[in-house]
Amino acid sequence: MALPTLPDIAFLHHLADIADAQTMPRYRTGLAVDTKFKEGYTFDPVTEADREAEIAIRAEISARYPDHAIVGEELGKTGSGPCCWVLDPVDGTRPFICGIPVWGTLIGFMIDGRAELGMMSQPFTGERFWADSDGAWSERVGKRERLATRNVGRLSQAILHTTSPEHYRGDIRQGFDRLAASVRMTRYGGECYAIAMLAAGRIDLAVEPSLQPYDIVALIPIIEKAGGVVTRLDGERAEAGGPVLVSATPDLHAEALRLLNGGA
Fold this sequence. Notes:
Protein name: Histidinol-phosphatase
EC number: 3.1.3.15
Radius of gyration: 18 Å
Organism: Paraburkholderia acidicola
Cofactor: Mg(2+)
Family: Belongs to the inositol monophosphatase superfamily.
Helix content: 25-40%
Oligomer: single chain
CATH architecture of the largest domain: 2-Layer Sandwich
Distance between the termini: 46 Å
CATH topology of the largest domain: Fructose-1,6-Bisphosphatase, Chain A, domain 1
């Protein structure tokens, strides 16, 4: 059976425009912040920007593709079938409420559980990062560039990123400490923007200990089309989330997985 046709990437840009119209007017304002339950977190913020952006994106997808499923951070799953949109209206709500522009809107598209298209929009900096069937791309102020990961060769020359150290415990904490001790530099707090920078050849490794599908699906095609590798720490594909490693090259990925999983 033939696979369904991929949506045109112009539609993902259209969805990003719709999200931007909801997030930007609320950014760096006196926005009320609520909290919701998320296992392992004492505070998981949500704002009107998160909710209204997802509502707006969902409405447009449902109007264009009424037979497609949608999974979103704020409103859960609707529909079924091989085609599924995966949405995080504000990935990085914490930096969003702090006024730090490393958040973004994530829009992913899967067929039969495999990520095929991805978009990350950062409207404050005016940047888009996306992947289509032709490659991975970035655009700012009308200038479009092809994304490509870099190859620094040795782990000792690599830059490692993670969002926050606070959710590392037990074996994964020990593994992260081994990896951090082996790289050139470790940085924190970049959220989805750091993954985009890995695709752009600025960062070499990113580890996240506990992702949901809406945190990673949109980013998988961007990394893979830029030449990188993204898997769970068990080596399986990352669409289901969990502990995830993103690497600029297959060699770095193999070495980092070894250290994360107990290698000396």
